[in-house]
Request: fold
Amino acid sequence: MGDVRTGEEHIAIVGAGQAAASLALRLRHGGYSGALTIFGDEPHPPYQRPPLSKAYLKREWTVDRLYLRPAEFWSGLGVDVVTGAPVTALDPAARTLEVGGRSVAWTKLALATGTRPRPLPPEFADLSGVYELRSLADADRLEGEIRPGRRLLVLGGGYVGLETAAVAAKAGVTVTVVERAPRILERVACAETSDAIRALHAGHGVRILEGRSVAQVEAREGTVAAVTLDDGTRLEVDAVLVGIGVLPRDELARAAGLTCDNGIVVDAHGRTSVGGIWAAGDCASFPFQGVPTRLESVQNAVDQAECAADDMLGHTRSYAPVPWFWSDQYEMKLQIVGLNRGYDAVLRRQSERGESLWYFRDGRMIAVDALNDARTYMAAKKLLEAGAVLTLDEVADAGFDPVARMKRPA
Reply:
């Protein structure tokens, strides 16, 4: 880590994921020439997390391909990437941070600390054979379980759990998914999308048990061996992946006195409650459509980070995204655009390629799930970005074509 003299201009970025990388790139490309440091907990330069439960776990990608840029790129850009360096404290008044037993001065600070997995259920504490999947190290540990003949229990029917289940099933693993909620993807998708994904997994031999929770765990020589559910179902297992969601990493911010509420609270420009400190990415809660919102996506990490960087450079603008997400499972590509929060109607449309689910609130389209239908996804994305008003009746019309509609005035 290069020395930064007191009083020297220095922007510090805490966190080394997608948001941190986007911040650093935007600052440099925006003309910032002062000292710039990224501090990361892990022993890696900034890397992509979504492929961990997909291409990387399938061994299709190497570690180097995960990296957003090679290590030498950052040094060439004049960005000091300090790996294996957890930041343990912040002092907003003194404008210092503590890392590796040292105090480092900063003139501006960006928090891109991301999220952490929810704590393991107590029944699984201190048992081997129990895994999480948030970091590259987590994926490396889990990889040894993804081989023919193994029995994997996935706790949690969200995207990470289902993507991992798909990879494991394709590799010859016997997979059971247990979801506490009444259906998989309940928090993020409509029942029709859940139905399609459930049927997809059933077709590949994955057993999905919904509305069930763990009642008892059996271990053999310190390793998980079986799980009994609340309805008495007993499952013998070789490994358990716990994918029950994540929490924002806001501990540093809270301890430093920054306002936090389901993440580090920021305004539309990425500014926290303390002057000179910004936050972006999965850890940040920002005003979106009049509601405090925290998005966990590549789109948000990149776009919000760039907005915060612009504000740090004096080019202030408001962050008003059109969110998008995706998930790859078997031969299915699920692409989502918009935020379906508060939807009151869903319309299903078939195409030659696949199908799509259109979400409406008060008769107006707000989001679309496209299943193997990239054409519809791209059209819906452009329509939302243009602020087009699509009614339920318009989309329900048998002759409705989203691509043709895209070419008309909003």
